[in-house]
Amino acid sequence: MRMDDLLADFLTETSEGLLALDAALVRLERAPQDAATLAEVFRIVHTIKGTCGFLGLARLERVAHAAETLLGRYRDGSRPVTQGGISLILAALDAIRGIVAGLEATGQEPPGEDAPLIARLDAEADGAPGADPGPGPAAAPPPEPDPSRLPAGGAPPQTIRVSVEVLEDLMMLVSELVLTRNQLLQLARSREDSPFAVPLQRLSHITTELQEGVMKTRMQPIGHAWAKLPRLVRDLGLELGKRIALEMRGAETELDRQVLELIKDPLTHMVRNSADHGLERPEERLAAGKPETGRITLDARHEGGHIVIEIGDDGRGLDAERIRQKALAQGLASEAELAGLPEREIQRFIFRPGFSTADAVTAVSGRGVGMDVVKTNMERIGGTIDIQAREGRGTRFVIKIPLTLAIVSALIVEAGGERFAVPQIGVVELVRVGGEGAARIEHIKEAPVLRLRDRLLPLIDLAVLLRLRTGAEAAGGPMEAAAGRFVVVTQVGAHVFGFIVDRVFDTEEIVVKPVAPILRQVTMFGGNTILGDGSVIMILDPNGIARATGLGADAAEAEAGREAVPQVGAMSEAGTALLLFRAGDATPKAVPLGLVARLESVESGRIEQVGGRPLVQYRGRLMPLLPLSGRWDPAAAPARQPVLVFGDGERCMGLMVEEILDVVETPLAIDSAGERPGYLGSIVVAGRVTELLDTAWWLREAGEDWFGGAATAGSGHRVLLVEDSGFFRNLVVPALSAAGYAVTAVPDAAEALRLRDAGCAFDIILSDITMPGMDGFAFARALRHAGAWRDLPLIALTSRDAPEDVERGREAGFTDYVAKFDRAGLLESLAQCLAAPVAA
Amino acid sequence: MQQDPTGPAGSPSSGPKGRPAGAATEVFLTLVVAGQLCGVPVLAVRDVLGPQAITPIPLAPPEVAGSLNLRGRIVTALDLRRRLGLPPREAGRAMSVVVEREDELYALLADAVGEVLPLPPVDRAPNPPTLDPLWRGVSQGVHRLGEKLLILLDVEQVLAIGA
């Protein structure tokens, strides 16, 4: 072999080695402890050195040798890997490249002086101080990479790694810069011929460009959030026995990484939902005349300043009737409310907390947490979510979110003498009202409305809502007739409404800053910011406004409903019927009406005292009476004593109260502060603080003596009650508690299984049969199949007690079967099941 | 320490002299709220500002006077008069003492800001049991300061509204 051939081989090999070295060194810098990378680097450099020694390439050998020595120190751990050291080695590689380039061109080592570089490498290897990398006067001219030796396809795009922190800092600084720029512009605007005008204009342009540039650095393709979905869908398909194809379009659509992080989980959740709830099993699909393989599509695109993401499936769609029933069963709305809602609104119930329509709870979904969380998350970042579903054809969720959270464009408005910012994303249009020839605000009773293109638009007077002006001042006041006001038309979900403002200023780019924690309960504001003129301004949150006025979440703004008047200020949240009464002190008391068997008015003369305790003959039995005020004074008693009767026909007790006040329907938002025995806490009813009675406690009070030995029967056995009806839970829990059982109640099987998986222990389980999600039979089978509760006694509580139902229950694994309202039967069954070991 | 809290022995002049644990002496910034002398630990104070343009915040708790712009940061202003249940400020403009809690800045609005004083803990008396419960909630104790009594404000508690 001739020398030339050897040289050519050497050159090829060295070039390849150098390419690999670059990458390996960057890796080494990031992970200095990585022995494998270090060994690889060492090996390549060693090979280069060895070969050039053999070929008599003295210059190359010296440089490579110095680099190898340093790398050897790194390898045996006598010197720590430093950034400076890596830079030195990179400089050595550059020098080697230069020499190799010269060799290729002329066949000779080019002349040059490497001593300073070698000295620094040696110094670094010896740990001498002052060995800083510096720009190293590489002896050779900067190497011109030979294009023919580069991998095909040309140079890859030049990228560097920058820590997220640096980007965040930059973003923040730019945000502040934008604000300052705005301030300056505002100042300059007030002066006609300011000498600053022109440079300011330039500064403004540059700032805008800088802002866009920095924004770009934070942008990431949405595909990053989707990367794990194909695998997820594949696994889900296997698990659920479905064939699923996932199609993703627009994966390259970019959005701010902060937004990306925030939507990642909700998106995953929705895809999961589609696979589990949306798509049918293959046989069902075939029967419905659809291809066996179900499709889930993800589609992302830019639209205006926003990104729109659609998640669709070609599954069964949403069953409005079933949602209606679930909503009713879960007490989310009353029958009357549901009757008036269009299908679209019914579908939106899936966004309500605790709602789940999955028939069976699977490992995947159907646990009743989900879409509400998704919705809340989207709203939190200023986005919206909507649903389009066609029964049998599929479901499509449309999410619209801002590209970035940092800077938003906002409309500045004034109401009640104060300025507010409204994010542009929420503004559909701006309508001038009250002026010459402009549209007019009309009132239906006190509610303002606007007729806008044949639509009746519910209006909210912002100043009134924010209590900057009273309703009386606003309605028909001179304000509106005069100069004219504006209606900001807003859309939240499917609801379109307007809010009335006094003036509209410019739009401004604002940096959204969160409000201080002590203001968090004011849900009307999404944040605050500093305007161009330096003043602080609150940013209105259309979602919050809609919620606060009952428009967004649930109120019926029937699309076609001409008579539909917005109930401003009236929350139509599903309520619980409460019986209000007075007893003891002036604070009104309340008890869920569902718990009270009857209201009686007993003649005081009929009340007898036995052992210092009042009782009354009631329906042929003696009923203990408990004075709610603590003591009962026959002398001071009124002629007729109002009594709330609890319990069933056989065992009952009466609570003596002073006066029955009212029955109201109200959401149960219990504040347990100031709790005292016998009360669950307080709630606000019609503006008054009202104490909520703890029925179980009072039954216990009576139970010790009057329910006979029952109290000891339970002897603290832990009972888990799975029952979807809140009404029935309310009945069973106090009854069992009174009998001495420690009862935990959950609304569905999913929750029960969650408790099981969380390691909760019980002695016996009571389960309803007909339940949303997983029914009682499936629940029993799931329990018997595996898990810690496998051998627990399991009693079915049901209204379905036909022999075949009972048989089915036994097959599923129920130990016993008790009719729903048979209290005595239930207690007996509990005692039996707990006494006898369970037949597996 | 326990026996002399309210007695005349605890006068401010005797405090600094016999102070073996000088390091324990905290330094307070005094402020006046409707004639009442108050003190906040100087270490808690980030800034003292003159009258500021304050943007009211609708629907906020009544103690919240609004928000203001402090060199690009938004500061929530709390009116100490309202916080302490005192009559509203008639005229003149409020001084702000800016404090920080959990990375958030709050401005406490007072009628006037006084001087910075070292107040040895020896001279501190506990809140008299008869003190208005609202005040007891925000006061860490009382210092006698010449003719006047100074309430030591517990900044944490002062800011604990709307919770």
From TrEMBL, chain B:
Region (Disordered) location: 1-21
The CheW-like domain, residue ranges: 25-163
Pfam families: CheW
GO cellular component, one term: cytosol
GO annotation terms (biological process): chemotaxis; signal transduction
This protein's name: Chemotaxis protein CheW
Biological classification of the source: Bacteria, Pseudomonadati, Pseudomonadota, Alphaproteobacteria, Acetobacterales
